[in-house]
Amino acid sequence: MYAIISDGGRQVKVEEGQQLDIDYRDVAAGDQIQFDRILAYQDDTTLQVGQPVVEGVSVTAEVVSVTQGPKLVIQKARRRKNYRRKVGHRQLYTRVKINKIEAGQ
Predict the structure, then answer these.
(1) How far is residue 92 CA from its own chain's centroid?
(2) What phi and psi values does residue 64 have, to the nearest 5 degrees?
(3) Residues forming beta bridges with residue 35, ordered by sequence position
(4) 89 vs 27: CA distance, rounded Å
(5) What is the mean pLDDT of residues 81-105?
(6) Do 90 and 45 contact (CB within 8 A), yes or no?
(7) What is the number of structural domains in the chain?
(8) What is the pTM (predicted TM-score) of this model?
(9) How buried is 3 (Cβ within 10 angstroms: 0-12 exposed, 13-18 middle, 19+ buried)?
């Protein structure tokens, strides 16, 4: 059983027990997050594709932790002008574990 959810402008295929990183949310570890924009859902027998979303299906996830992504380094330089800039950035993500995919049919 799996579902395809839309979160933060991205589409992600999720299964129960899977851990994934989503955009940062200000929630504590152990809290529950409900995903309601389900684009597709498949159980053992049927596949439902939404237009644009599937009604009656929800995905529940538990917040595991807040993590940081890889460091991105941005460098700017202008030749012969003695101009150099170096800036680093690490994006914050919320790591969640998918607990339950429910279809209320």
Answers:
(1) 12
(2) -95, -50
(3) 59
(4) 22
(5) 94
(6) no
(7) 1
(8) 0.83
(9) buried
